[in-house]
């Protein structure tokens, strides 16, 4: 019997096999202003879990490793009693530096992948390293990769995808991100064209892709088979124009409010979700409104409004009436 869609699942078409393809909506610590494992300006992890559940979400990401408890038994208890399940973990990598960084990278990835798998999730979101510091703006390296660095990036990411799949049963989804080397339409296409689709999929972040000048709907329609995961966010076009003109680094740009509450920015999320539904595959779509730092009382009302807005984006017909999380 086909399980009932979980809360937060948007209505989707029926696949050729007869099972309903779903877009499952979740949220993440990022939407509560959490960027670091420990920072006095961030809400405590207990408050995040309480509020994300109160806002009506049933799926979360782990966020920065160490923010939530890293003991699987404790984290399972804390999430279960709030009706929450984990969709993915997140790692940062600098694989364009080549084989010399592999051992250090794997030591970082393995612990996060183990916790992600223990929590029953199936995805590992991989974010490339920044070419300039996201808080200070210090330029760390050239913003353009050499041909050799591109080869390192693609081959080492494939290696990561293979190892994570074989050892932990997780699917690597690479996240194009502002101020990294996988950012613009040109760089995203180059990366996808050079990597094995059996090993590397994409986490399309609608806000970051718009921030870097890309069209999310066009990307989904062009590389649909590579879309393995979604992050939903919007950018304020007026703030973005000033950020680009002033060459503001990503962290200070966020502090200026470049990422905004839907539906007040770009891209429009209705056509993005419609294009995603047309792929006829199950997808997670995790809300991530970058707000670091932010007042502690700001995230919850935004999270509630965003969830209701996204439920209104179900396309023809109404979203499914939820009956509980899929386990």
From TrEMBL:
Pfam families per record: AP_endonuc_2 (PF01261)
InterPro entries for the chain: IolE/XylAMocC-like, Xyl_isomerase-like_sf, Xyl_isomerase-like_TIM-brl
Region Disordered, residue ranges: 305-327
Extent of Low complexity compositional bias: 318-327
Domain (Xylose isomerase-like TIM barrel): residue spans on this chain: 49-313
Annotated protein name in UniProt: Xylose isomerase-like TIM barrel domain-containing protein
């Amino acid at each position: 019997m086909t399980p009932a869609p979980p809360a937060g699942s948007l209505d989707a078409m029926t696949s050729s096999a007869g099972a309903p393809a779903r877009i499952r909506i979740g949220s993440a610590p990022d939407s509560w202003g959490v960027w670091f494992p420990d920072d006095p300006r961030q809400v405590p992890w207990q408050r995040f879990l309480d509020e994300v559940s109160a806002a009506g979400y049933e799926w979360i990401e782990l966020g920065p490793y160490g923010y939530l408890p890293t003991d699987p038994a404790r984290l399972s208890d804390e999430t279960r009693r709030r009706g929450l399940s984990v969709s993915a973990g997140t790692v940062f990598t600098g694989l364009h530096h080549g084989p010399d960084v592999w051992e250090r990278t794997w030591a970082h990835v393995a612990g996060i992948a183990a916790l992600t798998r223990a929590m029953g999730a199936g995805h590992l979101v991989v974010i490339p390293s920044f070419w300039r510091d996201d808080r200070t703006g210090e330029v760390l390296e050239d913003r353009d990769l050499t041909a050799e660095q591109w080869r390192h990036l693609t081959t080492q990411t494939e290696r990561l995808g293979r190892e994570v799949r074989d050892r932990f049963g997780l699917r690597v989804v690479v996240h194009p991100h502002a101020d990294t080397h996988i950012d613009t339409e040109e760089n995203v296409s180059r990366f996808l064209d050079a990597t094995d689709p059996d090993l590397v999929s994409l986490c399309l972040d609608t806000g970051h892709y718009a921030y870097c000048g890309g069209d999310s709907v066009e990307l989904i329609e062009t590389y649909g088979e590579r879309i393995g995961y979604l992050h939903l966010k919007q950018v304020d076009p007026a703030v973005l124009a000033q950020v680009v003109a002033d060459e503001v680094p990503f962290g200070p740009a966020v502090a200026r409010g470049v990422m905004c509450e839907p539906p007040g920015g770009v891209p429009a999320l209705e056509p993005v979700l419609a294009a995603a539904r047309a792929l006829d595959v199950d997808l997670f779509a995790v809300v991530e409104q970058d707000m670091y730092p932010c007042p502690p009382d700001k995230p919850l009302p935004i999270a509630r409004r965003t969830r209701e807005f996204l439920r209104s984006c179900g396309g023809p017909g109404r979203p499914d009436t939820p009956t509980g999380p899929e386990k």
